[in-house]
Amino acid sequence: QVHLVESGGGLVQAGGSLRLSCAASGRTFSSGAMGWFRQAPGKEREFVAGISRSGGSTSHADSVKGRFTISRDNTKNTVYLQMNSLKPEDTAVYYCAARSSAFPGTDYRDYAYWGQGTQVTVSS
Predict the structure, then answer these.
(1) What is the mean pLDDT of the chain?
(2) In this predicted model, what pLDDT tens digit does every residue of 4-41 receive, in sequence order?
(3) Under a CB-based contact definition with an 8 Å cutoff, are residues 21 and 73 in contact?
(4) What was the pLDDT predicted at 28?
(5) With contact defined as beta carbons under 8 Å apart, do 121 and 10 qualify?
(6) CA angle 7, 119, 45 (to 5 degrees)
(7) CB 32 within 8 A of CB 86
(8) Residue of 49, 55, 54 whose CA lies nearest to 95
């Protein structure tokens, strides 16, 4: 069992920055790839970024490339999402997720463990 807790969300003006954190507990020794997803009201859950078990491989959705950066610190069992140049369209609940595979995927259905989500609101 892996327990994930997101933090760092909040209200920010367009063009501002936030850093989300996701702390993992439980059987973290077997932790694999991790990802960030987001979901706005009435919309489908959307892939944002993923990172491999080692952190050596990352992927980012086209909508956030150049603005968001995913990283992880395995010694702290924590994954981060640095969000810069935020836009109102980034407003959503952001979730971190974990899977047993060493490599991330973009389909939320491939992730077995989920955090509770953290709200990010970007004002214009």
Answers:
(1) 94
(2) 999 999 999 999 999 999 999 887 645 799 999 999 99
(3) no
(4) 62
(5) yes
(6) 110
(7) no
(8) 49
